[in-house]
Prior knowledge:
The complex is a heterodimer of chains A (529) and B (436). Chain A has 529 residues and is mostly helical. Chain A is 61% helix and 3% strand. In chain A, the strands form 2 sheets. Chain A has a two-stranded antiparallel sheet with strand order 1-2. In chain A, strands 3-4 form a two-stranded antiparallel sheet. Chain A is flat. Chain A starts with a helix and ends with a helix. Chain B is built from 10 helices and 25 strands. In chain B, strands 3-2-1-7-19 form a 5-stranded parallel beta sheet. Chain B has a 5-stranded parallel beta sheet with strand order 9-16-10-11-12, with helices on one face. In chain B, strands 21-22-25-24-23 form a 5-stranded antiparallel beta sheet, sandwiched between helices. In chain B, helix 1 packs parallel to helix 7. With 436 residues, chain B is of the alpha/beta class. Helix content of chain B is 23%, strand content 26%. At the A-B interface, helix 7, helix 19, helix 21, strand 4 and helix 22 of A face helix 1, helix 2, helix 4, helix 7 and strand 21 of B. The complex binds flavin-adenine dinucleotide and iron/sulfur cluster (2 copies). The site of flavin-adenine dinucleotide has 36 residues of chain B, from helix 1, strand 2, helix 2, helix 5 and helix 7.
Amino acid sequence: xxxxxxxxxxxxxxxxxxxxxxxxxxxxxxxxxxxxxxxxxxxxxxxxxxxxxxxxxxxxxxxxxxxxxxxxxxxxxxxxxxxxxxxxxxxxxxxxxxxxxxxxxxxxxxxxxxxxxxxxxxxxxxxxxxxxxxxxxxxxxxxxxxxxxxxxxxxxxxxxxxxxxxxxxxxxxxxxxxxxxxxxxxxxxxxxxxxxxxxxxxxxxxxxxxxxxxxxxxxxxxxxxxxxxxxxxxxxxxxxxxxxxxxxxxxxxxxxxxxxxxxxxxxxxxxxxxxxxxxxxxxxxxxxxxxxxxxxxxxxxxxxxxxxxxxxxxxxxxxxxxxxxxxxxxxxxxxxxxxxxxxxxxxxxxxxxxxxxxxxxxxxxxxxxxxxxxxxxxxxxxxxxxxxxxxxxxxxxxxxxxxxxxxxxxxxxxxxxxxxxxxxxxxxxxxxxxxxxxxxxxxxxxxxxxxxxxxxxxxxxxxxxxxxxxxxxxxxxxxxxxxxxxxxxxxxxxxxxxxxxxxxxxxxxxxxxxxxxxxxxxxxxxxxx
Amino acid sequence: xxxxxxxxxxxxxxxxxxxxxxxxxxxxxxxxxxxxxxxxxxxxxxxxxxxxxxxxxxxxxxxxxxxxxxxxxxxxxxxxxxxxxxxxxxxxxxxxxxxxxxxxxxxxxxxxxxxxxxxxxxxxxxxxxxxxxxxxxxxxxxxxxxxxxxxxxxxxxxxxxxxxxxxxxxxxxxxxxxxxxxxxxxxxxxxxxxxxxxxxxxxxxxxxxxxxxxxxxxxxxxxxxxxxxxxxxxxxxxxxxxxxxxxxxxxxxxxxxxxxxxxxxxxxxxxxxxxxxxxxxxxxxxxxxxxxxxxxxxxxxxxxxxxxxxxxxxxxxxxxxxxxxxxxxxxxxxxxxxxxxxxxxxxxxxxxxxxxxxxxxxxxxxxxxxxxxxxxxxxxxxxxxxxxxxxxxxxxxxxxxxxxxxxxxxxxxxxxxxxxxxxxxxxxxxxxxxxx
Lengths: 529, 436
Ligand SMILES: Cc1cc2nc3c(=O)[nH]c(=O)nc-3n(C[C@H](O)[C@H](O)[C@H](O)COP(=O)(O)OP(=O)(O)OC[C@H]3O[C@@H](n4cnc5c(N)ncnc54)[C@H](O)[C@@H]3O)c2cc1C
Ligand code: SF4
Ligand code: SF4
């Protein structure tokens, strides 16, 4: 027996080395990166526009060429050979190198942008200066660290998107949703806000606004400086402000009802877009344990509560400062929020209590009490919210959640924890969409009778760490708050067991003790028992 | 407390344990000599191919068993004493039982070929077989060539496995076309082409004559019966089917055939001893099914059934309509009802066959010529819904009806191209019997 255990982890030795074209592609991609790095070490490129173009083209071409070298000569089908043998995709040496580099990049980006060449006065230097020509071309302004980041982000989604499409070229669902995220990233996150900046003048001053980036993911959307700029920009500004409110309170619920949270998480969102494209090689690293699921539920909902409290505090503070300027008064706002949340809670409790697990009920009550007491205390005590100033809350949220969680941990650790750590544990938008998906949506993943052979491919490749197999082998539909509808479980299933669907609400969640295929009397007897 | 002892921690043994636990407080022990925890045998290939690790193939977390008070015991049972109600392990330890469930699964067939026990020759069934493969065929340097003997579902999986490590594979298949004892011609021939397109050296109508040894007792070549050709190789995979793994029961007085003989209640000739899964052999086959059904879901269903009996509701094993699925390299296959190969089909079974021009999708529908009733469907490269076909078979729909409503049964992912119209018009052209 001991011999068995010892050898339990087979150390596969598949052909791991890169083929010729893959090597060329790697060199090409790295040379593009090299140019950016050299700029980082203050090599002053003479013709920045040219060098930036070379660099970005080399990066993109390198990635796409690599994809070609990997998939072009293969037949259509699932391409997971050797995933757990390759160092980069199995938490090996290269995975740690990549993880540490990415993390380092995020730390510099968020906390030490001066190393990227950001200067508080005068012209940029270093990497940011390298990106100046592109920024001037688009918005007319010089670049910032966020412009550098946005450009690289877009390049990543585009180039790795092409790779993803190549890999899943037999699967129309995967192709379409990837084209969709590539489009939303390029147009909405990258180009449109830059063009919008061109319109700005003394009297017209729109804030940088990625229209698809919805509060609470876009936690700063309703901060004073932004609301002020929206209001100051006349009808267009007001329309955008209203759009921001409608996005979360009207558009989101309707689309989520019809299609599940996937309409956002896997078709539109930039965080999801990066995870699905650049992060695809790491999706199987997510933790599938029940313990992780428990942690996930507590952490993500706590972040949601945090963002609600923080936003409420921030808004009420500026409403309070300047009651002349805003028609909404602080009192009305606070009472409104409290009533809205209480009502929402009441409706869920009344209609859906049966569907909530024990800990979810405690959690929901606990969270409601916390939020309401924050609001009451705040109402009573002026600008102090509980013990904290609204500004302190805002800053800590921005630091802890906005920077460390979503960036440094969420993306930096792709190669270690998997690609959707942020989406699963941290994103408050995902929390809202997830609540709705679980309780009030037509979306579900249906299972195909008795066909499941419990192989585990679906669970392994679920980036959200959902144990899909646990449902499939019971013939139970998968209706989980966290499912982003990426469709990969269905794609990798070798027996055609899973299908993402929008269907009627009745019988959306049903479990069977005995699966289809057995004696009908036995099925009736046991399943109804 | 009544002690239920289950030999075998595969799908059938584990299912019976889970269902007994749901309905009772009996003491349950599962014994296995293979792995500490239940894992999915069907996923063995994915471990070798690097899609998953062993941990991922375990359907339940390790804590599950304790939580559900199911005792796991590692050990090989070498004898069963039905009259004394005890089993004996190969280290001499004994264990008493009140009820015994034999769920010991299968082992790979060996048909007495010369050289079949040489080093470097092995079947693919147990986890240990995978370790063996990892030792003798870890890469194309250690294993310059592999030969697979036996063209069935496990053989083609092994071919795919080895090819992911770029090991050249020669695939000896006895039949004149791949799996044509089961599949109709059109499908079988499409698979021949698909197998070859994956650079497998497919040899049809080729039997193994002998495996040749080198000076150290390791296989170095195989000789083909028909041609006498000697094919040098470093690994030989024996995948010519499986047999119940019941040698240890020979002295037990439990009635054996090829498997453990059971009646419809899955009872053996001894009270309180049952057999389920791959190792059970029905005295009388059920419907068109075989007396021994070595597939995943039948093991599960037998487990579900016996658990009811043991918990006081005596239940007959009555499987519903036949269904199954497999994957041949990139082509998924599902079947519902019965579609027989040319070799096995009765006169009244007529076939409609449609194949997509890309040569990776096709379906075959079997009809009763006399009544027009739908008998079954094979589908390749198109996913279909179990529930719908199960209902149509129960309602004894006609093939005309099935063909007209085929889109209802489609289970492909959203946005996939659909072929129902093309299929229907091909069908109408061929039969021109569409009424209604
Ligand atoms: C590579 C491969 C791929 C497959 N793919 C599919 C598929 O896609 N679809 C499908 O339907 N079926 C498939 N099968 C068949 C399917 O896996 C089996 O039908 C099923 O696993 C049988 O389950 P079981 O519980 O009867 O026995 P097993 O899973 O074989 O479990 C029996 C256990 O009992 C243990 N045991 C045996 N004798 C003793 C003893 N004397 N003492 C102690 N322990 C003992 C064995 O070690 C084993 O662990 C596949 C099989 C293989 C090998
Ligand atoms: S359950 Fe399936 S569709 Fe949902 S997130 Fe996981 S892999 Fe994607
Ligand atoms: S649903 Fe498919 S992938 Fe998941 S365990 Fe079942 S057969 Fe395997």
